[in-house]
Amino acid sequence: MEIRILGPGCPRCHEVEKRTRNALAELKVAADVQKVTDFGKIAEYRIYATPGLVINGKVKCSGRIPSQDEIGAWIQEEKQS
Amino acid sequence: MKERKTFLVLLAVFVAAYFIPFSRLTVQNALLEAFLMVQEYARQHVLLCLIPAFFIAGAISVFIRKESIIKLLGPKANKTLAYGIASVSGTILAVCSCTVLPLFLGIYTRGAGIGPATAFLYSGPAINILAIILTAKVLGFKIGLARAVGAISFAVIIGLLMQLFFGKADEKNRSPNDFVSHVDVKEARPLWKTALYFAAMIGILVFINWTKADPSLKAWSFIYRIKWPLGGALLIVLAWMLFRWFRKEELKEWTFSTWVFAKQIFPLLLAGVFVAGFLLGRPGHEGLIPSEWIAKFVGGNSLGANLFASVAGAFMYFATLTEVPILQGLLGSGMGQGPALALLLAGPALSLPSMLVLRSVMGTKKALTYILLVIVMATITGIFFGAFF
């Protein structure tokens, strides 16, 4: 599974990363988690606000910090498909 | 990399300890001023003003759906409306300055185009809600209002000019794709509940900070006399709303994002207050920099003073909100009202680092035009404001 966290590196983006890693650990799912900090690259995902969370190329949420449960649900959704 | 940073910090502390002439009276006095200024903020601004403001900022970032605002800045947006929205939405969208650039790029390349995008780029950092609240509280209502009004009208004018200069040539670079819309969550409660919740918080902030005024203004002094019961009553109403209308996780998210803001902004602000106190002193007192210098460069309301203030502001980097204590120090040392407003209008929107980033995203020509527009307009507005107040 490929997970991208979009954001220039403010505390809100770090929080999304932390929650994502926690969710992965809880579900025991392995994933390639990377942060995207370049503005041009962030813009390519066509989100309007950071932080953004992208799982397998699909933008799951942007402009807010999702809860760990939400992230967990998205991970399972992607795992099944 | 990290080791080198630690080394440089240690080196800086050592050099400072070695060379600063602590035995000189002026330096001792300046240090005292620094601590007194920190105390003044702690006593007068933190509990009643900053903390409620952080809660409001946190609430904005959790409970306001940004999708609905951004939709109004899409490619098919009504142009007039787009400028209006872009110029005021900074209050709500850009409480954290790191969100401004991605948003700008988005609006520029696939939204309403360069005009509204620049309007947003300018207004975002200049009128975020925390900055306006603290400006009005510390520097006075008049300059706070002038800052808000000035920033909004600047945003529109600069946006329109950029559209005029570059709009035509830009059309072909634009991507036809709209933003990804994923309405993944339904509104948790009707809009009027959210509105009342924000109204209650803003009411608390306004009333507990109500200041004494001329006794001839009957209504004003009446509110001053009952400000505590009024604020307390609103607090009870707010608690009731929180208890009845919000889920527990939502409240957790709210406190969490409030904490994120506080953690991000508060240490820098205190450091800014300390440095401003050290260099400039509290109003009526002198810090390390002699007041005559300040008065010479940015005193009065001449073209030179206003220009100097806006150019210096444009290049200097202000961490969120630190422009307020710095200006307080400058005003106390004899800076004119006009140059102060010029600095407020040019300062937070631009800094040397942000200029470099801007250049890389929009090209040298556009970035330079934008920077010049900001500086020139800040100077002119400063002169006008200084002439009247």
Describe this structure in a few short sentences:
The complex is a heterodimer of chains A (81) and B (389). Chain A has 81 residues and is an alpha+beta fold.
Written account of the structure:
The complex is a heterodimer of chains A (81) and B (389). Chain A has 81 residues and is an alpha+beta fold. Chain A has one domain (2-80): Glutaredoxin (3-Layer(aba) Sandwich), CATH 3.40.30. Chain A has helices spanning 11-27, 39-44, 68-80, and strands at 2-6, 32-36, 52-55, 58-62. Chain A has a 4-stranded mixed β-sheet. In chain A, helix 1 (11-27) crosses helix 3 (68-80). With 389 residues, chain B is mostly helical. In chain B, helix 2 packs across helix 7 (129-139). The longest helix of chain B is centred in the first third of the chain and has 39 residues, at 25-63. Chain B is globular, with a radius of gyration of 22 Å. Classes of the chains: A alpha+beta (81), B mainly alpha (389). The interface between A and B is medium-sized, with 26 and 31 residues.
Radius of gyration of chain A: 11 Å
Q: Compute the number of strand runs of chain B.
A: 0
Q: How is the main sheet of chain B built?
A: none
Q: How big is the Rg of chain B? A: 22 Å
Helix content of chain B: over 70%
Low-confidence stretches of chain A: none
From the spread of the alpha carbons, the general shape of chain A counts as globular
| Percentage of residues assigned to helices of chain A | 40-55%
What pattern of helices and strands is seen along the backbone of chain B? HHHHHHHHHHHHHHHHHH
Low-confidence stretches of chain B: none
Number of helices of chain A: 3
Ends distance of chain B: 50 Å
Could you report the average pLDDT of chain B, rounded to the nearest whole number?
A: 84
- Named at the architecture level, the CATH assignment of chain A is 3-Layer(aba) Sandwich
Note the beta-strand portion of chain A: 15-25%
Q: What class would the helix/strand composition of chain B place it in?
A: mainly alpha
